[in-house]
Inverse folding.
């Protein structure tokens, strides 16, 4: 009897094991128990720029989920994009995991169209392992395992390095203001413009619609600011002075033409600048000379007071003469 009971217990254990095995084969392991607390994970991406860029570019990266892996909010067809301006890092957003398992992704950079950079073509393979933290049905935890595609060595982070392709050059055209003729008693403010003949031409910071203005108070020299060139080409500009309304001035109507030729050799850029005046004659700089003629007007100060005294004296003498003349006639 005792042996029979042992045999029955053994049969029950075997049947229970077979039942559990059948369930495990039919139902995914992650669905055997629901998590009280799901796991969350934000997948980061890093951007490094090698070299000194002329301008800050925005780079785009993609997280692609494989085999219907959970994705962050905002994903489209299993792909989520993220951007970084210049260097730095960001994340693709928060992913929520409600079941245990291994979930696979790829991380890559979208090659841009700028000729200033060599884009990083690295592709990273990411596996997110989701497990129970303590016991089944409790709290889930997620861990990342990152490798370069086709390799097995674990990587600390998904980092993409873009290299600046070519150097850049800077040109800062200066303007000089001179005044001929009389010496003004007070300084006037003069306005000058740098205009790109093509609005696509590089311009100094602070320009709008291919136009930059500067001012000079009295005489002196000021530049429009740095113009940065990142590509070879020929760029033309005009420089002129605004005709103002300050009294006594004849404004310089000269229009200067500036041509900047940028060439590239072995990845290095260089620039040659030429300036011509309205007549097409080459100039060494941009100089505007305003003629000043002191306006005529009433005298002021001590000089006007002196004239007033002379007038008063003359009138006094006339009165004295007039007073004596009638007296002499009466005596006769």
């Amino acid at each position: 009897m005792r042996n029979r009971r042992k045999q029955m217990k053994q049969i029950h254990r075997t049947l229970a094991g077979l039942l559990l095995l059948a369930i495990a084969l039919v139902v995914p392991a992650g669905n055997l128990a629901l998590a009280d607390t799901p796991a969350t994970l934000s997948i980061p991406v890093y951007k490094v720029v090698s070299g000194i860029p002329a301008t800050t570019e925005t780079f785009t990266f993609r997280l692609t989920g494989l085999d219907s892996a959970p994705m962050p909010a905002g994903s489209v067809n299993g792909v989520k994009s993220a951007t970084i301006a210049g260097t730095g890092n960001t994340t693709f957003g928060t992913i929520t995991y409600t079941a245990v398992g291994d979930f696979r992704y790829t991380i890559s950079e979208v090659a841009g169209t700028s000729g200033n950079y060599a884009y990083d073509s690295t592709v990273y393979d990411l596996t997110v392992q989701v497990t129970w933290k303590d016991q089944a049905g409790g709290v889930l935890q997620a861990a990342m395992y990152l490798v370069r595609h086709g390799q097995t060595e674990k990587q600390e982070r998904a980092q993409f390095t873009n290299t600046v392709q070519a150097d850049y050059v800077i040109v800062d055209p200066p303007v000089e203001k001179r005044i001929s003729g009389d010496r003004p008693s007070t300084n006037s403010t003069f306005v000058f413009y740098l205009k790109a003949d093509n609005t696509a031409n590089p311009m100094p910071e602070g320009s709008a619609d291919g136009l930059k203005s500067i001012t000079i108070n009295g005489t002196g020299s000021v530049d429009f600011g740095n113009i940065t060139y990142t590509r070879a080409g020929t760029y033309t500009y005009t420089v002129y002075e605004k005709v103002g309304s300050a009294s006594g001035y004849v404004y310089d109507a000269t229009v200067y033409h500036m041509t900047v030729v940028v060439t590239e050799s072995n990845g290095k850029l260089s620039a040659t600048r030429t300036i011509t005046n309205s007549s097409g004659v080459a100039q060494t700089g941009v100089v505007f000379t305003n003629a000043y003629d002191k306006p005529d007007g009433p005298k002021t100060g001590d000089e006007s007071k002196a004239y007033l005294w002379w007038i008063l004296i003359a009138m006094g003498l006339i009165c004295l003469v007039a007073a004596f003349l009638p007296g002499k006639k009466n005596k006769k």
In short: The mean pLDDT is 85. The two ends are 188 Å apart (CA to CA).
